[in-house]
Amino acid sequence: MKVAFLGTGLMGLPMAQRLLGANIPLIAYNRTPEKLEPLKAAGAEIAIKPRQAIAVADCVILMLTNTPAIYSVLLSDRASHSIAGRTIIQMGTITPTESKEIQDAVVAAGGEYIEAPVLGSVPEAKTGELIVMVGGNQLQYERNLELLKNFSPNPIHVGAVGTAAALKLALNQLIASQTAAFALSLSFAQLQGVNVDIFMDILRSSALYAPTFDKKLPRMLDGDYSHPNFPTKHLMKDIEFFLEEAKNVGLNIKSLEGVREIIETTMKMSFGNSDYSAIFAAINHTLEGK
Ligand SMILES: NC(=O)c1ccc[n+]([C@@H]2O[C@H](COP(=O)([O-])OP(=O)(O)OC[C@H]3O[C@@H](n4cnc5c(N)ncnc54)[C@H](OP(=O)(O)O)[C@@H]3O)[C@@H](O)[C@H]2O)c1
Hints:
Blueprint: E1 3-6, H1 12-21, E2 26-29, H2 37-41, E3 45-46, H3 50-56, E4 59-62, H4 67-74, H5 77-80, E5 87-90, H6 96-108, E6 112-115, E7 118-119, H7 122-127, E8 131-135, H8 138-148, E9 156-159, H9 163-191, H10 196-204, H11 211-222, H12 232-248, H13 254-271, H14 279-288
Parallel strand pairs: 1-2, 1-4, 2-3, 4-5, 5-6, 8-9
Antiparallel strand pairs: 7-8
Helix pairs in contact: 9-11, 9-12, 9-13, 9-14, 12-13, 13-14
Bound molecules: NADP nicotinamide-adenine-dinucleotide phosphate (NAP).
NADP nicotinamide-adenine-dinucleotide phosphate binds near residues 10, 63 and 121.
């Protein structure tokens, strides 16, 4: 089986490298060709145009930013002609509505479609320890399980197309809300003269604790948001997606709208390409401005 890997950014590159490491024949495409160099050096075939990769593969993995990128790479007039008979595995974070629309377009072009968004970041992508959530039917899940095991020890079948995309958004809403809540409590404790070690000791021993707090604490204390695995701009995109979908199903989204404003401020402070824990700077900034 030959795999076409489209989109070798922060996540796509290590994921494609895992397939090569497992001796799976691979042809890769990326809009910015320079990012393909490590794959070329490791023996991957390189495609100049996405359709060249799609045409020679049995299975096409997409790890692209968003739906416009997917349309541009997969569903442009020329590329979509190559889809017939191929399985498309969409692994980026998009909305359930978009995922179902892409499924319709792929099926209309004679292909099969599943979604397989991931939780975890670059370190987990490198070691194959992502949490992969699969949306598709049971047969599709079973057929693609061995391939997906290169990214995760236990890819989980969530349900039909749309359900895995929805679950991924539900989890990313937690990333934003928990990080903003932690940054607010940390800032408040600091400004009230509470020792940070005592704050963290008590938090760690309580039911309120989440491991992400300790992961992000050093960045927040040092104000160092460089070399991100997951940049603020992507979290912003996911929160916009969540708000749109949650509004459609009639949920009260006021708490997350507040978090979105804070993320907007973070972006305005030029932290769009920085680690999303820069939310801390926007929260302190807000306090300082009062
Ligand atoms: N980073 C994480 O920790 C993480 C974790 C879980 C899920 N995700 C999700 O996974 C997806 C990829 O994330 P990433 O961190 O790998 O992002 P990234 O480093 O920004 O890579 C995005 C990829 O999409 C391509 N792309 C963007 N717009 C395009 C367009 N209009 N036409 C063609 N190609 C386009 C980029 O090409 P260029 O190289 O030419 O820009 C690149 O290959 C996103 O949906 C993200 O939300 C990320």
